[in-house]
Amino acid sequence: DAKTTQPPSMDCAEGRAANLPCNHSTISGNEYVYWYRQIHSQGPQYIIHGLKNNETNEMASLIITEDRKSSTLILPHATLRDTAVYYCIVRVAGTASKLTFGTGTRLQVTL
Amino acid sequence: DVKVTQSSRYLVKRTGEKVFLECVQDMDHENMFWYRQDPGLGLRLIYFSYDVKMKEKGDIPEGYSVSREKKERFSLILESASTNQTSMYLCASSPSRTGLMGYTFGSGTRLTVV
Description:
The complex is a heterodimer of chains A (111) and B (114).
Chain A: E1 9-13, E2 18-23, E3 31-38, E4 45-50, E5 55-56, E6 61-64, E7 70-75, E8 84-92, E9 105-110
Parallel strand pairs in A: 1-9
Antiparallel strand pairs in A: 2-7, 3-4, 3-8, 5-6, 6-7, 8-9
Chain B: E1 4-6, E2 10-13, E3 19-25, E4 31-38, E5 42-49, E6 56-57, E7 64-70, E8 73-78, E9 87-94, E10 104-105, E11 109-113
Parallel strand pairs in B: 2-11
Antiparallel strand pairs in B: 1-3, 3-8, 4-5, 4-9, 5-6, 7-8, 9-10, 9-11
């Protein structure tokens, strides 16, 4: 699986968009980008995933660059409850391989 | 609502004890996973299973074993607990071998070995 690089921490004001970047410059053509988050004292929660097209669901949007070497998770209107560690993971689809979590980005949403 | 349930939220065991951590999912998922989480190290995979009675080692299997006798249940066993196994243990499941769907995690078991 390709390695990912994320900033260790970010701050965002409540109500503003939170844009969390992820670099995956060694991604290969059959690897998907997954995003999870972990709120304190809970298990990680799946947010969204994509291959090359931008994706949107009720939680977030995922923007993947055309060369697929980086992506951005967007929380359009961050709330205090979005304070969590966000993990970007790249993994080959079509295999039963496990997800490998790095150390992620700690997002702090403030008033 | 889909669920992965871990039997204990907090557990304190003595060094040398045999420890069982239980995980049950009600989603009929084929795949189940055990991770441990430590500060600064992120989540590390211990063992996983694609099917009943099937298991594969993850990145840090030493000191652990697993059992999957039924599809819905995946147990993590610490044969002889040691203090360096003090950690948060997280169980997860996913629905298919293709892995295109997201994982569902349990709330975790915080194990302290004294």
